[in-house]
């Protein structure tokens, strides 16, 4: 029996519904035309705080004891988890501290500060930020809520799988952005419990894909973190990973890896064809289709995991992708 099951997902759904939106699932005419099977976008870019991370963070806050609530929580985050945890903590009247590395874009840092959390910018990698968060947990008695390797966080992300199963019971394949694997584990375990035939594929950038390399090695391995357009997919899975490595290994059908140009092209596609402004991590499922790495077996659901891109950066990416005149994907 896995560490988290659909039962925990159902409990989580009830615990987070006051704060978390049920997001829309929309047919993409242009991607359906491209694939010749129906393709849907699950729009977590329209979730409150701009990403699915609010699901897991809200469920983790709901799971605190009253003593833990009183002392507060701490985390390390590439941005979206920190932002979501700050939002969920503020809504529950819990103090939050967020440790971030210098790679995190300034728009995300500002958004977290604006939610009232204490922000610590430390080091050059997600691992450095995590080390500082662990120190604060130890020394100040704060409860550490990691971005993915935590049962309540995984159960919260699993509520997204419940929604997909309800919104599109005929779904055949789901493309899920993959970093630490909390999103992938949660969505897959819920979906496959309800719809056993569904295939779930994990999608990452080729640069620094920690889970992909760990799956290949058969155990969690360290991977050097490098800058990528999919900044929310950066960081390791933890050499002492407790839950997400095993869950991902159990549920994953395929790993799909992408180069940076294809991520930019997918952001351009989202902008021109779907009228969506999304971050690189949120675009990888679209990129997997556009690079023809997915079988034409539908319906296909793409989890558009987040929209928190710096607007100036987005504009640069779009202009460059247009200028380079990579083939139009309409
Ligand atoms: C965190 C994040 C992911 C990856 O989630 P994991 O649980 O770490 O695999 C994907 N997309 C966005 C927008 C994220 O913020």
Ligand names: pyridoxal-5'-phosphate
Please tell me the overall pLDDT.
94
Largest sheet: 6 strands, mixed
Q: Domains counted in the coordinates: how many?
A: 2
The tally of strands reads: 10
Q: How much strand?
A: 5-15%
The stretches of 5 or more residues where confidence is low (pLDDT under 50) are none
Structural class: alpha/beta
Strand order of the largest sheet: 1-2-10-7-8-9
Shape: globular
> Which sequence of SSEs, written as H and E, runs from N to C?
HEHEHHEHEHEHEHEHEHHEHHEH
- What is the C-alpha radius of gyration, as a whole number of Å? 18 Å
Alpha-carbon distance between the two ends: 44 Å
CATH architecture of the largest domain: 3-Layer(aba) Sandwich
Helix content: 40-55%
Give the CATH level 1 class of the largest domain.
Alpha Beta
**CATH topology heading of the largest domain:** Rossmann fold
Total count of helical runs of at least 4 residues: 14
Which terms would index this structure?
binds pyridoxal-5'-phosphate, four-stranded parallel sheet, 14 helices, 330 residues, single chain, Rossmann fold, alpha/beta
Structural overview:
- With 330 residues, the chain is an alpha/beta fold.
- It has 2 domains: 4-50 and 148-317, Rossmann fold, CATH 3.40.50; 72-140, Rossmann fold (3-Layer(aba) Sandwich), CATH 3.40.50.
- The protein contains 14 helices and 10 strands.
- The chain has helices spanning 6-16, 29-35, 53-62, 66-71, 80-92, 106-114, 126-140, 151-167, 182-194, 210-217, 244-251, 260-273, 280-290, 311-323; strands at 25-27, 39-43, 73-76, 96-100, 118-121, 143-144, 173-177, 199-205, 254-258, 300-304.
- The strands form 2 sheets. A 6-stranded mixed beta sheet has the order 1-2-10-7-8-9, sandwiched between helices. A 4-stranded parallel beta sheet has the order 5-4-3-6, with helices on both faces.
- α9 links the parallel β7 and β8 (199-205).
- α1 packs across α3 (53-62), α8 crosses α9 (182-194) and α9 packs across α11 (244-251).
- The N and C termini lie far apart (44 Å).
- The model has no long low-confidence stretch (mean pLDDT 94).
- Pyridoxal-5'-phosphate binds next to α9 and α13.
